[in-house]
Design a protein that fits this description.
By secondary structure, this protein is an alpha+beta fold. The protein has one domain: Pnp Oxidase, Chain A. It is 27% helix and 36% strand. The chain contains four helices and eight strands; from the N terminus they run αβββββαββααβ. The model has no long low-confidence stretch (mean pLDDT 97). It catalyses: oxidized coenzyme F420-(gamma-L-Glu)(n) + a quinol + H(+) = reduced coenzyme F420-(gamma-L-Glu)(n) + a quinone. This is Nitroreductase. It comes from Planotetraspora thailandica. Belongs to the F420H(2)-dependent quinone reductase family.
Length: 132
């Protein structure tokens, strides 16, 4: 979706380049690889939701979860960067009760998430990040 160049520009400019993308906003999620133990950073569409931040583990509607999602399920202690603000956060998957409202928040800024649901039988997770 974004690629290495997008990530590098965002990190080098504290989001001055790469924060705004195709009409929405991007954060950088850093997880710990569940197999390698190495830090992995991924640019993702995000939205604020109360005191939390939301991400969608869509992978364009692929039948398997994205690697970053598998990593945060294995180790929910992550880092999020929004422009120049880098902070530790704890990640969790939205509950079935929370998900509908959160999904609506995310599809309001990226309507293709609804399209992605037609490409897969899996329930696409909404991830909730809370500062720690």
């Amino acid at each position: 979706m974004f690629g290495k160049e997008h990530l590098e520009r965002y990190l080098a400019t504290d989001g001055e380049e790469g924060y705004e993308w195709r009409g929405t906003t991007i954060a950088i999620l850093t997880t710990t690889g569940r197999k390698s133990g190495e830090k992995r950073s991924t640019p993702l569409i995000y939205q604020e939701y109360g005191d939390a931040y939301l991400l969608v583990a869509s992978q364009g509607g692929a039948d398997d979860h994205p690697l970053w999602y598998k990593n945060l399920v294995a180790d929910p202690e992550v880092e999020l960067q929004i422009k120049g603000d880098r902070f530790k956060a704890r990640a969790r998957t939205a509950t079935p009760e929370e998900r509908p409202g959160m999904w609506q928040t995310m599809t309001a800024v990226w309507p293709d998430y609804d399209v992605y649901t037609t490409r897969t039988s899996r329930v696409i997770p909404v991830v909730v990040l809370e500062r720690v």
